[in-house]
Every structure is written in structure tokens, then in C-alpha cells.
Amino acid sequence: MKTVNIHEAKTHLSRLVDEAVDGEPFVIAKAGKPLVKVTALAAPDPSEAKRLGFLAGQIEVPEDFNEMGREVIETAFGGGG
Q: Which listed site, 2, 36, 58, 62, has its alpha carbon 20 to 30 Å from 75?
């Protein structure tokens, strides 16, 4: 794995990042002491990311949703009014 000093990393950051994305991670060092490792993320393509609402129209919320289980919860926690 390639090690570069901070100055070199600042000067060639774009190229180094491109190389990391292509599978060649690198280490940034200061005064010869390794500080950080730069490697590509295994993140999904933004077009493949699930979005809120992706189940719209596929499920139904019952009319009594806010009341479901009220008696059980009140009994369990001593509520009721």
C-alpha cells in the first residue's frame, strides 16, 4: 500500500482518490508517521438507494391504528384515565 506525506496528498488528492476508488488505497503520513488510511467506500449507487415512501400504495394503515392495543397497554402500565 502506498504511503504519501500530507503535502503530496494535498497536491495530488484528486489523482490519489481516483486510484483509491479503483482499488488502490493509500496512507497519509506526517513526518513519516502513518495517520489515516484512504480507501473506497462500498456504498450503493445513489440510483439504487431505497427512498422513503418506496412502499407507497402497497400497504394500508387500519382506521383504528391509534387505538390498536390500547386496552392491553393500559392494563400493563396502569393507565386508563
A: 62
What are 4-39's pLDDT values in tens digits?
999 999 999 999 999 999 999 999 999 999 999 999
Cell of 50: 431505497
Tell me how far apart the alpha carbons of residues 56 and 13 are, in angstroms, rounded to a whole number. 42
Contact present, 60 and 70 (Cβ < 8 Å):
no
Return the beta strands (E) in 6-80 as ranges. 26-30, 33-38
- The C-alpha atoms of residue 43 and residue 18 are separated, in whole angstroms, by 16
Specify whether domain 2-38 bears CATH 3.90.280.10.
no
